[in-house]
Structure formats: structure tokens, C-alpha cells
Design goal:
Helix content: 10-25%
Radius of gyration: 42 Å
Distance between the termini: 93 Å
Strand order of the largest sheet: 27-30-33-37-36-35-34
Strand content: 25-35%
Shape: elongated
Oligomer: single chain
Largest sheet: 7 strands, mixed
């Protein structure tokens, strides 16, 4: 919303500077984005009158003018403008004047000098030379009543500022100069002087037939016939100035008047060429297949979702958006039909955007325009048309035809004084609140605990108690609300010793050469099916995009998308991780400060590696990352805890290269290589390897416990056993650890490491040989061979008994 400060001050004139006014508006919620002068600085330019014009004796394109600048003596000025003529009023830069900078960026000073041998004592100015517009067609032609000798800046009101304010969608009542003036009046308690106008005398009985067939589209439709107007009339200079300073380009008198009243009162209206209207008008919803050529030149097709104004020929206007070209006024128009209506906001919202354009009318109607003043505003437009375009003895004005069919019903909104005081943080009295409501023009009735407030017809943003509390706070002044620190009992909480922070986990993953990524929790529905096997994901009611329509139950899909993004940018080695929440249905979850009933939101830690193990280098042979590299990273994260890996299948992982991750016999996640089907579908040259585990399990850690360090040397023994190929190595390790726990002689075992697997000559086709290295050590004495042999024999007997394992010979 852009407007002239002088225009605003004509309705309310607060006793404050422009900067103070800007600050006041911003602090009340009408954010002032920009304040700029309407014209650049220049000096010593006055209104002058050209008395004589003679040809320059030495130049065909120059004229020598005798100019009266109100100094008592005539000035001799050489001028090359094509429109200079005797008797015209112009802007004259006197000798010593400083004009706005030219293309070189330097101010232009006017001096007495000779042009082609003739002395010139000043300069007659065009609008472009004064930087008022880009029009370089000739001198600025001023009205006949312009006072000679007056400072041109004062005459043209150039000591004015343009305010540009950024309005929130709920402040549609401020989309006019009157609306902003109402706000300033309420904030400063200064009297409001709205535009005054009287009803125009009716001199014609003619009415145009209007039928409102869609009360859910149009609640009120007011119009009148005016005959005998002069569409070629010149728009007054004062109106042009206000339009230009509000960001509107003057077009023609009839159009300019309609735009002016829209800016002044917030009332979009439309002027039809009456002679082009076929029959009467009907306000209705569109019909599929109907078309209209709009004023912007676009031809669009309407349907049942778009409101229209139609005549017997077809659609003539998009309701509340834009008029049609067929009934547009031109400079030849003599008879018009003037319309002002109330369109329901929900019937206009989104319609203009559907056709990829926006209009000032749609911007206002979709937010809500005063439904009670269509007739009064119609009278204002009529008065201006008669004043500017009227022809004496010819212009005839018909009566206002006011069709009221369906207006909003305003129910009182209750606000409690105690509630307002609590929310705002200031002890406000009933009298203070009543004064604020009075200044805002809100009708109210006092109640035992507060007020019942009825919103005026121009306010569409007051529906609940909080809306009124906001109004009270705005007028009271946000700056007047004291900034008090919160008062609450605070206690320092010591972090549990057996838990580590997610920040620590992030840092550990970064130390392992992973880069953190942060992705949306909203994903494609297809991703949930592909990467989580989730055919019934949690769907969003209002997704921000079609490809972000469900909540994720796994982080894997996001990381695969990150890999694809980087591969498309020629980065062939990717190691990423994410710490984030996943979402699943869980009837056991109850509402809480950080929970929503029926949905669990656990945090997961997921990491993915793609490409080579390390960056290319001379000291290590290049190879691609594999399952065991990622397994080692995962074990390093959980150290000193020991993890178990059980072969399992997962929708996102390779059937033979995936496993569940167990901690203390509880499944906490999965690890594996991406499924070949998904690798092909998502166009990945190599298969990424990844893991996903519960963040809560990863945060748990063991409290350090003292253990005696042995002073005696360790003993190592190698043991190779032959077992069926289908037997997992983990099963043998479980038997060894169980034997250590149950057999006193095996307590000296410190570590077991698998160092070899053999299949081939000397073994059956279904057999394999696994070689383990046992480290044994006692804290009290040096181990003797007999004790070591007994422990090893016990280990061999245990695996033989459980799985039939035999020593390899």
C-alpha cells in the first residue's frame, strides 16, 4: 500500500514529524517499508508565464521567450521545447537554480549565458528535467490559475513523502488512505476528517436491470446510470498527483476517478460503457466453456468456480477481479453504468491467481471490503464524475439501484478485561479499554467481566477474543508494555552420567568423515513404500508440495536423495548422516508437552556411505566402501558397548547383505547395502551402504568402572574349527562367551578375534573353517600351559556339543 503523506494529513494531521509517523505506524502493525520524497531536491524554480515567443535569429529549432517570473522585470530565456507558446504557465529555473543531477550524476546549475549569440537568463523546465517523470515531450504545462512567482515546489506540493507500508492479510481495512487515517486517528487520538460528499441530485429515472443469481458470490450490488459524460475531459492535476504518488498511472478521467476512490476509500468499482451492454446484467457463477477478453488483453475461460457479471451477450466482467474489454469505457464513451458491490471474500480468493495475474480490486475483495457503504461510495464516485466529466445541460444522473441480498451477520465478540490484562502484561482498567474501542470505532456493550464488541462493517479481522486483545495492545502501544524478565523457580539440572548428547554423537560421526545433512520430515508417498515398506503412511492434511505429502518413518530415503543430488553435481564420494525424528502411529502415546496422542516420534541416527572408502591417494589402493566398513563405523560409535548383528531382511536393503543391529539382545536398528531394485530405480551407479539406529540407544553409555590391570603376560592360542557353511560366526562367538560366563576355568579369556575363514580343498562342500585367536590373561598369576589347555579344551567341547564343530587338522 503506497500513499502520499500530504493526502494522509488531509484526513488526520498528528502533531509529529514524518519519521515519528513512520515509527508509529510500524509499531502499530502497519510496517513502513519505505519513505521516499516524491521529487529529488532542486532550488530556485518558480511558476512563470510565457508572454512572447519569437524565433531565434541564429537557430531554427530555438525560440527566444519573454517570461514573467514575478520578479518585476521580464526574463529573456532561450528555449527549444516544441510546445512552448505565448500565454502558457511553466516551471522556470532562475539564474542560480540547482536542478537534479543529470546522467553524469552531478547537480546542474543554471547560469546566465549566451545560446547562439542570444543571452538566456534562465531555463524553462520539462517534467523530465525536474525528475518528476520520464516525459520529455516538452515543457511542463501548468494550469491557468497557477500563481506567477510562487515557488514551484510549494505549488506542486513536492515537499511531500511517499509512504509504502506492508500490510498483513488481516488488515484489509487499511488498504486505503481513509483506513490508514482511521488507524492514525485512533493511535494519536487526533480528530478524523474523512472526505465529505453529498448525494448527487437525480435527474434521470432510468435504471439498468440487474439480477443477483448467486447470493454466495455477491451480497450487495449497487449501480446507477449516468448519461452525457465527457470521457475526454482532463483529469485534474491534484488527482493525477495523488494517483502517481500512490503508484497508479493516470489513464483517462473515468478510469482515474474509479482508481482514485479505490485508493481514497478502499472501494473498488467498475465503469461499464452503457451503450455496449446488451440487455440487463446478471451476477452469477460462470459456466464451463464461457470466455471473456479482459481489460489486460488476456482471453480467459471461466467455469462454475469463478463469479462473473454477464449480460444477454455473455460474460462482461470477472466478479471482483477485472472488467471485460467488450464493455470497457473509451474516450468516445458518452453513457456509463457505474457499479459498486460487496463480494464475499471466499468467493474471490484464489480466482485471480488461477489466471496468473493479480489486480488491486481482487487484492481488496478477497480480504474483505466494507459492505455497508456501497451507496455512499457510489455517490462519491458520481460527484467526481459530474464535477470532472459532466457537461452542462447534458449530463443526467439516474437513481442508485441498491440490491441487497446477503450481507454478513456480525455477532458480538466477548473480551474479558482480566484476560486482556494477563495476555498483554499490563493492568488495564475497563475505562482504558472502553476508550481504545471508542477510538477504533468499535461498538461495545459493557458486561460484568468485560465487553461485548461488535465489529464495524469495514473490519473482517475481528472474530475471537484474541483479535480484540491484539487491538487493545496495538493502540495501547507495544513500546509502552514493560519488558519484564520472567519470574520462575529455576534449578540447575545435572545431566545423567550414563547418557551423552546428540551433539556428541554428531561430532563423533563428523570425526568418522561423515557430513551432516538436515532434510524435511515430509517426503514422497512412494519413498515410504520403497524404503520402509510403509503402505499406509501418515498423510498431511495440507502439504506444502505434492512431493512432500506424508511424514517419514525412516531417514533412509532422504539420504539416498542427498546422494543423487551430489552425484548430479559430479561429486562421486558421499558420506552423509542425519539425526532426526521419524513418525509412526502408536495408540499408546498420550498427549503431552512434546507428544501428540496416537503418534510416536522417536529420533533416529542414520548414516550412508557411497563411493570410495577414502579420497584418492598414493598411499592406499582405491576401493569402494562395503558392509564391513560401515559396520566398523557403527561399532566405533557404540564402543565400549558390544553390538550383535543378526542376518535379516529389510525393504530397502540387499537381501543377502543386511542385518538387524542388537544391543543387549534388543533390536535397535538395521545395517546393510541398498537393494539392487532401488539402486536401479533411483539411477545409482554403485550401491550405497547405510545404517539406521535409535538415537536413544546410541545416547546411552556405560559409567566407567575400575578394573584391575594385569601385570602378567597374556597368552594367545589359535583355534580353527570346521562347521557347516550355513552356521553364522556370531553363533560360535555366543557359545564362547557363554562358556566363559559359566566355566570358572574359562574366566581368563580376555578377547576373541576371527582372523580367517577357509573353504575349499580338504573340506566338504558344505563346510567351512573358521580360525579364532584367543587372548587369555590372569590378573593374579602367570598362566601355565595346563590351565590354558583346560580352557581351550572347554571352548572346543562347548562348540562341539552345541553345533558339532570339530577341530581342523
Amino acid at each position: 500500500m503506497q500513499f502520499s503523506e500530504n493526502w494522509l494529513r488531509s484526513m488526520v494531521d498528528p502533531k509529529m514529524t514524518s519519521d515519528e509517523l513512520s515509527h508509529l505506524l510500524t509499531m502499530s502493525g502497519l510496517e513502513v517499508e519505505e519513505v521516499e520524497p516524491v521529487a529529488p531536491p532542486f532550488s530556485n524554480v518558480v511558476v512563470a508565464k510565457v508572454l512572447e515567443v519569437a524565433k531565434h535569429p541564429n537557430a531554427d529549432r530555438l525560440n527566444v521567450c519573454q517570461v514573467d517570473a514575478g520578479t518585476g522585470t521580464l526574463l529573456n530565456i532561450v528555449c527549444g521545447a516544441p510546445n512552448v507558446r505565448a500565454g502558457m504557465k511553466v516551471a522556470c529555473a532562475m539564474a542560480g537554480a540547482v536542478l537534479p543531477p543529470g546522467e553524469d550524476g552531478k547537480p546542474f546549475e543554471i547560469k546566465v549565458g549566451k545560446l547562439r549569440g542570444v543571452e538566456s537568463q534562465g531555463m524553462l523546465c520539462s517534467a523530465r528535467e525536474l525528475k518528476l517523470s520520464d516525459d520529455a515531450g516538452g515543457l511542463l504545462d501548468l494550469p491557468e490559475d497557477a500563481p506567477v512567482g510562487q515557488n514551484f515546489r510549494d505549488y506542486y506540493q513536492l515537499n511531500d513523502l511517499k509512504f509504502t507500508i506492508k500490510l498483513t492479510p488481516n488488515k484489509a481495512d487499511c488498504l486505503s488512505v481513509l483506513g490508514v487515517a482511521r488507524e492514525v486517528s485512533a493511535l494519536t487520538d487526533m480528530p478524523l476528517k474523512p472526505p465529505s460528499f453529498a448525494a448527487v441530485a437525480v435527474t434521470l429515472e432510468e435504471k439498468l436491470s440487474v439480477k443477483v443469481s448467486a447470493p454466495d458470490l455477491c451480497g450487495r450490488f449497487s449501480g446507477r446510470v449516468i448519461r452525457g459524460v465527457n470521457a475526454k475531459a482532463e483529469t485534474p492535476e491534484w488527482m493525477k498527483q495523488r494517483l502517481e504518488r500512490s503508484g497508479q498511472r493516470p489513464i483517462s478521467a473515468l478510469v482515474d476517478i474509479s482508481n482514485y476512490v479505490m485508493l481514497e476509500l478502499g472501494r473498488p468499482s467498475h465503469v461499464f460503457d452503457l451503450d455496449k451492454v446488451q440487455g440487463g446484467l446478471e451476477v452469477r457463477w460462470g459456466r464451463k466453456g464461457e470466455q471473456i477478453k479482459l481489460l489486460n488483453g488476456n482471453t480467459v475461460e471461466v467455469d462454475e468456480w469463478v463469479g462473473v457479471i454477464a449480460d444477454d451477450r455473455g460474460v462482461e466482467a470477472l466478479a471482483g477481479i477485472m472488467g471485460g474489454d467488450d464493455t470497457a469505457v473509451t474516450l468516445e464513451t458518452q453513457n456509463i453504468y457505474l457499479e459498486a458491490a460487496f463480494w464475499w471474500p471466499q468467493a474471490i480468493q484464489g480466482r485471480a491467481r488461477r489466471y496468473n495475474f493479480s489486480t488491486d480490486a481482487a487484492h481488496r475483495f478477497e480480504r474483505g471490503v466494507d459492505y455497508a457503504t456501497t451507496v455512499e461510495h457510489l455517490e462519491r464516485i458520481t460527484a467526481l464524475i459530474v464535477e470532472i466529466c459532466g457537461v452542462s445541460g447534458q449530463t443526467a444522473v439516474g437513481p442508485v439501484d441498491d440490491n441487497v441480498v446477503n450481507l454478513p451477520k456480525r455477532a458480538p465478540v466477548h473480551v474479558r478485561t482480566a484476560r486482556a490484562a494477563k495476555v498483554i502484561g499490563v493492568a488495564l482498567s475497563d475505562n482504558q479499554i472502553a476508550d481504545i474501542f471508542t477510538r477504533l470505532g468499535l461498538r461495545f456493550a459493557r458486561e460484568a467481566d468485560g465487553f461485548a464488541v461488535t465489529a464495524p462493517s469495514f473490519r473482517f479481522d475481528i472474530e475471537i477474543e484474541e483479535d480484540l486483545i491484539e487491538e487493545i495492545a496495538r493502540v495501547y502501544g507495544f513500546e509502552n508494555i514493560p519488558a519484564l524478565p520472567p519470574v520462575a523457580a529455576n534449578a540447575m539440572r545435572i545431566a545423567p552420567e550414563d547418557s551423552r548428547s546428540l551433539f556428541t554423537i554428531r561430532r563423533q560421526l563428523a570425526d568418522l568423515d561423515y557430513q551432516e545433512v538436515v532434510n524435511f520430515s515430509f517426503v514422497e508417498e512412494a519413498w515410504e513404500a520403497d524404503f520402509a515398506g510403509n503402505l499406509e503412511p501418515i498423510k498431511l492434511l495440507n502439504p506444502i508440495a505434492s512431493q512432500m505429502s506424508v511424514m517419514r518413518s525412516s531417514l533412509v530415503a532422504n539420504l539416498v536423495a542427498n546422494v543423487r543430488y551430489n552425484l548430479n553435481r559430479k561429486l562421486n564420494r558421499v558420506r552423509v548422516f542425519e539425526v532426526g525424528a521419524v513418525f509412526a502411529r502408536d495408540a499408546a502415546v498420550q498427549d503431552g508437552p512434546l507428544s501428540v496422542a496416537g503418534f510416536s516420534q522417536p529420533k533416529r541416527v542414520t548414516a550412508l556411505a557411497y563411493g570410495s572408502v577414502t579420497e584418492e591417494q598414493w598411499g592406499q589402493e582405491t576401493r569402494n566402501v562395503d558392509f564391513f566398513d560401515i559396520k566398523a563405523d557403527l561399532e566405533a560409535l557404540f564402543a565400549p558397548h558390544s553390538l550383535r548383528f543378526i542376518k535379516a531382511e529389510h525393504p530397502a536393503l540387499h537381501p543377502g547383505r543386511s542385518a538387524h543391529v542388537l544391543l543387549n539382545d534388543k533390536t535397535i536398528g538395521f545395517i546393510g547395502e541398498l537393494h539392487p531394485r532401488l539402486q536401479q530405480k533411483y539411477e545409482l551407479p554403485l550401491a550405497p551402504v547405510l545404517f539406521e539406529v535409535d538415537a536413544a540407544a546410541l545416547q546411552k553409555r556405560s559409567v566407567p568402572v575400575y578394573q584391575e590391570i594385569s601385570k602378567f603376560p597374556p597368552v594367545t592360542r589359535d583355534l580353527a574349527v570346521v562347521v557347516p557353511q550355513s552356521l553364522p560366526t556370531q553363533d560360535l562367538l555366543d557359545v564362547f562367551h557363554a562358556e566363559k560366563a559359566s566355566n570358572e576355568s574359562c574366566r581368563v579369556l580376555q578377547a576373541i578375534v576371527l582372523f580367517d575363514e577357509y573353504r575349499g580343498k580338504g573340506l566338504e562342500n558344505n563346510e567351512k573353517s573358521l580360525a579364532f585367536r584367543f587372548t587369555l590373561q590372569d590378573t593374579q598369576t602367570t598362566l601355565q600351559d595346563d590351565k590354558v589347555d583346560a580352557a581351550m579344551a572347554a571352548f572346543v567341547a562347548a562348540v562341539h556339543k552345541k553345533y558339532g564343530a570339530k577341530l581342523r587338522t
